[in-house]
Amino acid sequence: MTKEELIKGIKTGDPRSLSKAITLAESSLDSKQEVALQIIEHFGPQKDTLRIGVTGAPGVGKSTFIEAVGVEILKDPTKKIAVLSIDPSSEVSQGSILGDKTRMNKLSSMDAAYIRPSASGNNLGGVSKNTRLAILLCEAAGYNTIFIESVGVGQNETEIAKLSDLFVLLISPGGGDELQGIKRGIMEVADIIVVNKADGNNKSQAQVTAKEYSMALNLKPKNENNWTPKVVVVSAHKRQGIQPLIEKCLDYNKHIKNHWKQNNRKEQMKYWTKKNIEYLLLSKIDQYSDTIESSIENGVLPERLAKNILE
Ligand SMILES: Nc1nc2c(ncn2[C@@H]2O[C@H](COP(=O)(O)OP(=O)(O)OP(=O)(O)O)[C@@H](O)[C@H]2O)c(=O)[nH]1
Ligand SMILES: [Mg+2]
């Protein structure tokens, strides 16, 4: 398909065209990615969208949660949902793609929803560097609510926050230890903490966990947008607590206001520009390996050599 055909397809809401454009965006070939960039530039920024990052440990219920929330959101006929799930391992395994699709059975059968695993090969940190482009393409195609699902490990979790307007952390009942560990960093950036799996024997434990997290959150300063993070208890599986959760998301969206959101997106774009420069520079190093070797042989100082290469 040509660029013009893809643009036309995306305009008319053809999911196949969108998928093809995302594949171009994810390509490691510069010429292909260039076409994706031009398509995005053609559409320009879409301001009236909400990007929701969802992270949490493997198996905490992220996909089930997105399905429950997504189906509820789609009761509003003005909404269209795209779900991009990122596997932080180097390859998106067939297993996890199938797993995510089956966990989002209902959503994936709905016309107003688009679900796509984002390849994370070629990544910067943990998040695929092209997930941002996939988000922009989905928005160009008219999807106004974008979920980005990713397992929260290492650097990945804060990078997801840099792609989101609203950042949701899922935890399971129990595990008070988590409060001390890696979750500290992520709690700094979480806007809403969801205690999932509050059903069966876990019901009361979920309330205890929610209380612990609320107390811990009270100790920390407000987020930079002056929003106090909220803790919500749900059962994604039983579809319980979903409506109150959506109300918190809407509160948040109202609280941050469009002005803050657009500024925040600009800050994020500065971050991704630096990341892309880093990436391009690093990929350049390979091209210079012969020069580096011969210059070192000729006694050039590494400090001088680096300056020469960058000039
Ligand atoms: N009891 C209970 N089980 C749940 C709930 N939500 C999810 N599960 C189960 O937990 C398991 C994992 O759910 P997923 O939605 O695939 O979790 P995930 O976080 O997306 O997993 P990965 O993408 O593999 O990291 C499945 O067996 C779900 O049925 C819940 O609210 N209650
Ligand atoms: Mg999942």
Keywords:
globular, binds guanosine-5'-triphosphate, single chain, alpha/beta, 13 helices, 311 residues, 53% helix, seven-stranded parallel sheet, Rossmann fold, binds magnesium ion, 13% strand
Instruction: Describe the largest sheet.
Output: 7 strands, parallel
Counted by DSSP, the helix tally is 13
The CATH superfamily of one domain is known as P-loop containing nucleotide triphosphate hydrolases
Helix percent reads: 40-55%
Q: List cofactors, ions and other ligands.
A: guanosine-5'-triphosphate, magnesium ion
Distance between the termini: 39 Å
Order of helices and strands: HHHEHEHHEHEHEHEHEHHH
pLDDT below 50 for ≥5 consecutive residues: which ranges?
A: 90-95
Record field, number of beta strands: 7
Per DSSP, what share of the residues sits in E-state strands of 2 or more residues?
5-15%
Rounded mean pLDDT score? 86
- By CATH, the topology of one domain is Rossmann fold
Output the structural class. Answer: alpha/beta
Specify Rg, calculated over alpha carbons: 21 Å
Shape, principal axes of CA atoms: globular
Strand order of the largest sheet: 3-2-4-1-5-6-7
CATH top level of one domain is: Alpha Beta
Explain what the structure shows.
With 311 residues, the chain is an alpha/beta fold. Helix content is 53%, strand content 13%. The protein has a domain at 46-256: 3-Layer(aba) Sandwich (Rossmann fold). It has helices at 3-11, 15-26, 30-43, 62-73, 94-103, 105-108, 131-140, 156-161, 183-189, 203-219, 242-287, 289-297, 302-310, and strands at 50-56, 81-86, 113-118, 145-151, 166-171, 192-195, 230-233. Strands 3-2-4-1-5-6-7 form a seven-stranded parallel β-sheet, with helices on both faces. Magnesium ion binds next to helix 4 and helix 5.
